[in-house]
TrEMBL record:
The keyword Kinase does not apply. The chain crosses the membrane at residues 27-48. Keywords: Membrane, Transmembrane, Transmembrane helix. Residues 7-19 have a biased composition (Pro residues). It comes from Streptomyces siamensis. Residues 1-22, 54-101, 109-128 are annotated as: Disordered. This is Serine/threonine protein kinase.
């Protein structure tokens, strides 16, 4: 029998790769890539923040300060409104218990207390007047003796308003002298002065009332008195001292 040497065999196919080994290598690769990307993003973020901080410092304020995100001034830049100066409260004259307004009290206190009993003054109705009073007036005369009656005094906001009121009563009356006749209009004189002190009208209001009223040229005031006897009322009117003391 013959002996043959074994013949060399061709190499076999390569062994298939180990799946576990490939997965491990792939995982390491993605981990490294993730670390690199994260590091890059962090660096980029720091650079952007640094640049924004530099820009805000150059503008003198933060774009996200207390005023919001519109680039408005921060708290240290807000101008506070100036404190309004304290104002003194308006102080009205004290009520003296008369129940009159300040304007009515001022009118009362301007009356001649020698004849006008100021404590008797009460509010009167006079449309358009700033103050109107009805007061007790006492006069003394050698012929008529002491006479006490009621009289009205009113103050208006202007001379034009006073004239409007006067014309509403006297416009239809003819010109004349109230010392000589009734139902006329004219002028009157105070203390025997040659210059007229104002306008006057005298007329019969009804069967029981005769009216004398006069205005003043130096102030928007009107005086009025009524009585049943025209002659007696006219005589009493002439015994009046100046109505106003100022």
């Amino acid at each position: 029998m013959s002996r043959h040497d074994p013949q060399p065999q061709p190499p076999g196919p390569p062994a298939p790769p180990d799946p576990g080994h490939l997965l491990a290598r792939t995982g390491v690769r993605w981990t490294i890539i993730g670390v690199l990307v994260s590091t890059l993003l962090t660096v980029v973020g720091l650079v952007v923040q640094a640049r924004q901080g530099h820009d805000d410092t150059a503008r003198g304020g933060s774009s996200t300060g207390a005023s919001g995100t519109n680039g408005g001034p921060g708290p240290s830049e807000v101008t506070q409104p100036a404190t309004a100066p304290a104002t003194s409260p308006v102080v009205s004259p004290p009520d003296d218990g008369s129940g009159l307004t300040a304007a009515e009290r001022a009118l009362r206190d301007s009356l001649n207390s020698d004849q006008w009993r100021r404590e008797s003054c009460e509010r009167e109705t006079a449309p358009g007047a700033t103050a109107a009073l009805k007061c007790t007036v006492t006069t003394s005369d050698a012929g008529a003796g002491t006479v006490t009656t009621k009289a009205d005094i009113a103050l208006y906001p202007s001379r034009s308003k006073l004239q409007e009121v006067y014309r509403s009563y006297a416009a239809n009356l003819p010109e004349g002298n109230c010392d000589q006749t009734m139902n006329v209009r004219g002028t009157w004189h105070e203390n025997g002065s040659s210059a007229p002190a104002g306008d006057v009208a005298c007329y019969t209001a009804d069967t029981t009332r005769y009216v004398i009223f006069c205005t003043y040229y130096d102030r928007p005031a009107l005086f009025q008195v009524t009585g049943a006897d025209p002659a007696a009322l006219t005589s009493w009117w002439h015994t009046l001292d100046p109505v106003f003391t100022d």
